[in-house]
Specification:
Layout: H1 2-28, E1 41-42, E2 47-48, H2 57-61, H3 64-76, H4 80-93, E3 98-99, E4 102-104, E5 109-111, H5 123-143, E6 147-153, H6 156-159, H7 172-188, E7 193-195, H8 197-201, H9 219-235, E8 248-252, E9 276-280, E10 287-290, E11 293-295, E12 322-326, E13 335-339, H10 342-350, E14 356-360, H11 370-377, E15 381-387
Parallel strand pairs: 6-7, 6-15, 13-14, 13-15
Antiparallel strand pairs: 1-2, 3-4, 4-5, 8-9, 10-11, 10-12, 12-14
Helix pairs in contact: 5-7, 9-10
Length: 401
Amino acid sequence: MKKKLLRLLLMVPVLATLFLVPALTALSALPGSPLTPTAGYSVWENRSMADLPQLTAESFWDGSYFAGWETFLSDRFYGRDRWLQLNTAVELLRRRGSVNDTVVTEDVLLPQNPIPDYGARDYAAEAEAMAAQLADIDALVRSYGGTFLYVGLPEQRSLFRDVYPDWQENNAAHLENTETAFAAAMEAREVPLLLLRPLYEAAEDRTALYSVVDHHYTLPGAYVAYRAVCDALAEAGWDFPVVTEDQISFQQLPNPFLGTYNRKLYGLSPVEEQLWVYHSEMAVPFTRTDGGEPVAAEVLDLPDGSWQYVYYNLYMGGDQAETVVDTGREALPSILIWGDSFTNALESLAWMSFDEMRSLDLRYYREMTLRQYIETYRPDIVLCVRDDLNYLSTAGNGTVQ
């Protein structure tokens, strides 16, 4: 009898949770509900949450209405963030090496890597195909007297590959195969290539140059890339003002910084970091357009107060399909920078050296092909900035024709 009573007492909270949470979720979504609903956008998961499904004859008969309810309840269950935060706290207390697909080390957060199928890849063939396309872009830019330069950066997990614990795949072999094949193919095609991984690996403190909670470099790390690019372009014969160390000062914001990985730990990350901004006497007046529309003349999207979370999209406002920064200094060369989000922090510095800085993110830009864009605007310098996870990728910014 006592055992049955104990089982009943244990079942009551479980059953109550199973029925009560969905009921509270549905109630909180109703207009005028006294309950605060789960937000439509999750800061922690960096995505929009599902909306309440709409009942129509079509959605009823094709089953999408019921599937919509399943997604809605999963995304919007009442107290979602608190429940997930509690689960994360338990996992961290258990000292799990990986929590929410994030590898937690003493000083750095890293993503849990999948194990690639090395045997199924022909790295040399993939690299040759990519180098051939980039050689065409290089030839186009050279045809009107311009300079093309491909800048290769280590992604955070690549730079910190030696930090991974022994039980976790660090993909070192895959990364080495990719970089070696790509560098060889670019050299064979005589396409200008600037690989910066050795520069960052040689740094006394890599964590000063690359984020410990996000997959990008820090702003000081972006400055290292900026100076390396300036040196390479100067060797190619270009003359423009360079922002030197005595002309720029970096400061960290007091705001909490949510990067790619600490946000997955729901505010409980044992590793913390602050985001960098800068002040420079080299800054000059400029105008800015995004997608052809005038926007505020800013390259740093600063928060209103010190209490707000800040994100990597503080630089240039995040990923933009097209941005044009015009400083009105026609005696200086113009530049086009294309690539993924690694360009954002670099752009926030590079604009000070040029007359006009254009930037493209081909994951979102659809008006013209890259080749058509270059033919239309004929920038003096064309810069491709990519991380070593994507050297051979033909998607997004790897679609270069």
